Amino acid sequence: MIIMINGSFGVGKSTVAAALVERLPEAMLFDPEDVGQLARYITRDVRPPAEDTDDFQDIAIWPPLVVATAQQLLHHYRRRLVVPMTLAKRPYFDAIRGGFAALGPVQHFCLVAPLPVVQHRLLARGDAGPGSWPWRKAEEYVPLLHDPYFVEHIDTEQHSVDDVVNHILARIAEE
Fold first, then answer.
1. Residues whose CB is less than 8 angstroms from the CB of residue 66 and which lie 6 or more positions away in sequence, other chains included
2. What is the secondary structure of 108-139 as a DSSP string?
């Protein structure tokens, strides 16, 4: 099983994913950002202009590399994957979720909170103030991720990390 934890930068994906892995001993964390950094590095001198942006998700090989990496992790380690990532652009979301679905069961949860809450959390992290890349992406993605297309939404302003993890555990137990 793959458990996708989607949401804006600063909404709590990494915190929830880590807590979920602690509660699911047969699970492991897989962060597609690592694959993105690899894709950015290995294509640095060959990317066409459309892929040469400030976002590794725009690199054409990123979605299939994410899916291929998940496939190898599932095959080799035979554990559930907990996958925190920000996927607000439908083509990237569809490519990755569809690729994951071809590998087996997938549960998707989209963490949401109002933009001021997300911005407060980004400031509290100390690495993302106004004008920073995560700040700008949060401004762009928070409204997009509230779209019903990204169900199932979980409000991280109203619920604690434990509440969110308990909700996810209850939903995956239903599968």
1. 32, 35, 96, 99
2. EEEEE--HHHHHHHHHHHTS--TTSHHHHHHH
Neighbouring residues of 110: CB distance < 8 A, sequence distance ≥ 6: 6, 7, 145, 150, 151, 152, 153, 154
What is the C-alpha separation between 156 and 163, in angstroms, rounded?
9
**Within the chain, what is the greatest distance between any pair of CA atoms?**
47
Q: Residue 87 CA to chain centroid, in angstroms?
A: 6
| Alpha-carbon distances of 151 from 110, 111, 115, rounded to whole Å | 6, 9, 18
pTM: 0.94
Which has the closest alpha carbon to 2: 87, 109, 76? Answer: 109
Angle (CA) 145-149-152 rounded to 5° is 75
Cα 158–160–165 angle (5° rounding)?
A: 120
Q: Element (H or E) spanning 106, and its range?
A: strand 106-112
d(CA 94, CA 174): 23
Report the SS3 class of residue 33: helix
What's the one-letter identity of residue 55?
A: D
Q: Running along the chain, 175 residues long, what does each successive block of 10 average in pLDDT?
A: 96 96 95 96 96 95 98 97 96 97 97 96 87 92 95 95 97 85
Classified as helix, coil or strand, 28 is: strand
